[in-house]
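Let us work through a complete example step by step.
Step 1: write down the sequence.
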Amino acid sequence: MANVADATATAPAAAKLDAAKLDNATPAGASAETAPAAATKRFPGTPRNMVAGIAMLLASVMAFTMGMTEVFFAEATAWIFGIWGGLLIYAGMLDIFRVYEITDDALLIQDDFRPWGRLKVWDWERLNRLDLLVKKNNAQAKDVEMQVYYYPQGELAQEREDRVFDAALAQLIIEKAGLKPSGNANPADLTAVPLDQKQTYIWSK
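Step 2: predict the structure and record it as tokens.
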């Protein structure tokens, strides 16, 4: 009976010893939880009005199906409407599915609808300019366009991506890339860009 009691008493101690061994086996600096990935912020694509493209494409289809293309000029016009309608729809889809992502190292631009260059990685060091274009007088927010410029290493020409203006995205790009306003007219608050007259605001290195 004494032996059974001794074995029972030593069982918890053995369990504690095993746990201590496991703790000591953990490498220095290791953590039970995986370190979180670098913080990112995503900006979805911008909706586009594709009514014009759809209307042109439908007009082309109707011209062919209703036998209105017997004359060469009419057939050529129908083809032109169809091609332009398809291009306008495709351009709208590119804008809708284009996603901008801000990371600590680069600006990521992803567009699954683009068969070439679906993912662009623009490091902040070579992202050298951002333009805001107010395209007409008494404009609305949708009339302001944002253009981002990037100078690839070893290339002579710059790359450019255009999208509808987003104040939060523009502010992050300016801060991460270290861009400076090129003139005193540049708005200090990007949420209050003047829209009363046509203007171009530039930030560059």
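Step 3: interpret the result. The mean pLDDT is 81.
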